[in-house]
């Protein structure tokens, strides 16, 4: 190591450094956050922001939550990693907690939503091959869905902009319109091994699933022997006011995937399923180096135990109602900008009018200038996904900043 390398950890870096050394798969904001606490964030210049993104529905307990920090620190001083030749106490406790809290009998742990969906899709294929034969291999997904960025999961996702240039894509994958029961009936036939759906589409525009549609998918899978997979990577873990969104509908999948908020920012994901399906994946059939390591499992268990409390979830529903009511009033006051708000709990999308088509990013940028961080879901939807610990006062402040920001855009 030469002399200049000894200062790498303290070397000044800026947003320009991203353009110089990182692969340009993102176009991050001009400001660089350096510190967070709850829903508060500060950038390199000391400017304060109210964070209504929670890291894209990840930091559901807020930045640097002291309960999570304590659990991570304790485990970091105990045991980090073993490899899958050994199990560990934290992952066993997490597996017990998740199966006791859900329909599932078995859990597989990995590192990201894409990996959880990859595992779910591989499981469905292998199960169908073993039980019915290789002809039963087709996967049905929805247009505008998002299931991850591996070649398999991005192909299953229903947004062609993410697959352009990566052809040839994995075969036997079909996409149908979301919430279209007739399209589902036409597509889900005896050669289908899996139907994968988000009960609430996130990246596709914050679009809630109709109960009748999700029930139709359940019925069609029962009739054809297909595996029903609910992707709850974004809408699960308390985001909509229930621990998982399938509970809201009372419709139980065969497989559920979870990530994002499961670790509150620490990379961890889970695929949950039944005894019958889990038996398909025998020793050596699937795996991951880091999945279920003691650090990740400890954090996830702490997050799960914090969120999965009646009082906590009741407050999420209350806060969701408050945020929706506040945004409905904002929409009523700015009918030239927004048409409606949709979603569930604390995952809401504000749809822009025809006159503002393609301009959700402009609203996002204006809000950031005024100290509010929000998301978009496509170019026509402003997405709000604050931490589940958001207060009524913070909701009111977000409303105030959004109004100031929109006023500024209207005057421009």
Q: How would you characterize the overall build of this protein?
A:
- The protein is α/β, with parallel strands linked by helices.
- The chain folds into two domains: 3-64 and 310-411, Aspartate Aminotransferase, domain 1, CATH 3.90.1150; 67-307, Type I PLP-dependent aspartate aminotransferase-like (Major domain) (Aspartate Aminotransferase, domain 2, 3-Layer(aba) Sandwich).
- The protein has helices spanning 15-21, 54-57, 66-76, 89-101, 113-131, 151-156, 181-187, 211-224, 245-249, 275-278, 294-307, 310-333, 360-369, 392-411, and strands at residues 33-37, 40-43, 48-51, 106-110, 138-142, 173-176, 192-197, 200-201, 207-208, 227-231, 255-258, 269-273, 338-344, 347-352, 372-373, 375-376, 381-384.
- It has a seven-stranded mixed sheet with strand order 4-12-11-10-7-5-6, with helices on both faces. A four-stranded mixed sheet has the order 1-2-3-15. A four-stranded antiparallel sheet has the order 13-14-17-16.
- β13 (338-344) and β14 form a beta hairpin.
- The mean pLDDT is 96.
- Its cofactor is pyridoxal 5'-phosphate.
- Its main location: cytoplasm.
- The modification N6-(pyridoxal phosphate)lysine is found at residue 260.
- GO terms for molecular function: diaminobutyrate-2-oxoglutarate transaminase activity; identical protein binding; N2-acetyl-L-ornithine:2-oxoglutarate 5-aminotransferase activity; pyridoxal phosphate binding.
């Amino acid at each position: 190591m030469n002399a200049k390398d000894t200062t790498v950890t303290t070397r000044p870096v800026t947003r320009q450094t991203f353009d110089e050394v990182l692969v340009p798969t993102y176009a991050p904001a001009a400001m660089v956050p350096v510190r967070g606490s709850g829903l508060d964030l500060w950038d390199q210049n000391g400017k304060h922001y109210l964070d209504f993104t929670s890291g894209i529905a990840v930091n559901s307990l807020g930045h640097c939550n002291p309960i999570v920090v304590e659990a991570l620190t304790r485990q970091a001083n105990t045991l980090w990693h073993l490899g899958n030749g050994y199990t560990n106490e934290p992952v066993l406790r997490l597996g017990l907690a998740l199966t006791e809290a859900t329909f599932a009998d078995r859990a597989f742990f990995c590192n990201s939503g894409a990996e959880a969906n990859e595992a779910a899709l591989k499981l469905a294929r292998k199960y169908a091959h073993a039980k019915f034969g290789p002809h039963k291999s087709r996967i049905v997904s929805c247009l505008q869905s998002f299931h991850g960025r591996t070649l398999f999961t991005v192909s299953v996702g229903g947004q062609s902009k993410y697959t352009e240039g990566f052809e040839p894509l994995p075969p036997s994958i079909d996409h149908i319109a979301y919430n279209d029961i007739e399209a589902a009936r036409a597509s889900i036939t005896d050669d289908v091994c899996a139907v994968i759906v988000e009960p609430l589409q996130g990246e596709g525009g914050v679009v809630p699933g109709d109960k009748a549609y999700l029930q139709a998918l359940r019925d069609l899978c029962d009739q054809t022997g297909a595996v029903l997979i609910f992707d709850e990577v974004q809408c699960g873990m308390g985001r909509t006011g229930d621990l998982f969104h399938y509970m809201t509908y009372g419709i139980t999948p065969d497989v559920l995937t979870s990530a994002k908020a499961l670790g509150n920012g620490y990379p961890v994901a889970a695929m949950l399923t039944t005894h019958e399906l889990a038996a398909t994946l025998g020793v050596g059939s699937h795996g991951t180096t880091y999945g279920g390591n003691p650090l990740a499992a400890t954090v996830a268990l702490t997050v799960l135990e914090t969120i999965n409390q009646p009082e906590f979830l009741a407050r999420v529903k209350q806060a969701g109602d408050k945020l929706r009511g506040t945004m409905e009033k904002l929409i009523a006051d700015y009918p030239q900008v927004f048409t409606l708000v949709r979603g569930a709990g604390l995952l809401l999308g504000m749809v822009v009018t025809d006159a503002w088509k393609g301009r959700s990013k402009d609203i996002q940028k204006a809000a950031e200038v005024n100290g509010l961080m929000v998301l978009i879901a496509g170019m026509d939807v402003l997405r709000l996904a604050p931490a589940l610990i958001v207060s009524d006062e913070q909701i009111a402040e977000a409303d105030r900043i959004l109004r100031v920001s929109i006023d500024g855009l209207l005057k421009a």
